[in-house]
Design brief:
The strands form 2 sheets. The protein has a 6-stranded mixed β-sheet. It has a 3-stranded antiparallel β-sheet with strand order 2-1-4, covered by helices on one side. Helix content is about 35%, strand content about 25%. By secondary structure, the chain is an alpha/beta fold.
């Protein structure tokens, strides 16, 4: 069983006067199949926390352990490989490559790890079918709706079978019907894949769908 252990994580940035403190002693744990919503307004530190968990940033103090690995102890090539194989990202903006088809976009993480095998191709096709895009494999992002682009991004995030899935306002740019569809698919796939999922959002409607909810205020977790 995979496990994420976050212990007393704090993050601050230097300024000309006092340090800007964004996170203050965040601690929590997740195991395979569990999910957590972190609520809070823009600027409260949600994305900073997500970047630390996704190994895109490092904590000022505290530690993060994913499957008994402390990412801060890895060198750059090891860290890139670890991130690509263990962590999947879904952002508010889909960040699809405009010149690539839906299928090619989903395969991008496998290319980064040199694992674009026939098995990876079948995995990508299967995921696109599971998000309802089996008839859009060859369509480029400009030919897809907003909801379809985000569903493609979810498939891309899962193609390497990550143990941790991180989503930053995944429904923030969608209309209500598309948001509900994307949220349902994200949670269904997370359950089927038994990944750990953390979503940061300002949407109470989305957060209510998850197993656990906390609010981030003044750099700390509080009950939501």
């Amino acid at each position: 069983m995979s496990q994420l252990i976050v212990t007393e994580v704090s993050k601050q940035y230097p300024t000309r006067s006092e340090p800007l403190v964004v996170l203050r002693g965040i601690s929590f744990e997740l195991s395979s199949g569990q999910n957590l919503a972190v609520l809070g307004p823009s600027g409260c530190g949600k994305s900073t926390l997500l970047h630390i968990l996704g190994t895109l940033d490092t904590p000022t103090t505290g530690s993060v352990s994913l499957d008994n690995v402390d990412p801060t102890r890895l060198d750059e090539p090891e860290l890139a490989a670890f991130r690509n194989s263990r962590v999947g990202f879904v952002f508010q903006h889909h960040h699809l490559l405009p010149q690539c088809s839906a299928l090619e976009n989903v395969l991008v993480p496998t290319l980064a790890s040199s694992t674009a095998t026939p098995g990876a191709l079948e995995r990508a096709r299967t995921l696109l079918d599971r998000v309802g895009l089996s008839d859009r494999l060859d369509h480029r992002p400009a030919e897809l709706s907003g909801g379809e682009r985000q569903r493609t991004a979810i498939a891309r995030a899962l193609v390497n079978r990550p143990v941790l899935l991180l989503a930053d306002e995944p429904t923030g740019n969608l209309d209500r019907a598309s948001a509900q569809q994307v949220a349902g698919l994200l949670l269904d796939l997370q359950s089927c894949e038994q990944t750990m999922l953390m979503i940061v959002t300002h949407s109470m409607e989305l957060a209510a769908l998850l197993q656990s909810r906390v609010a981030l205020a003044d750099g700390r977790f509080t009950p939501a």
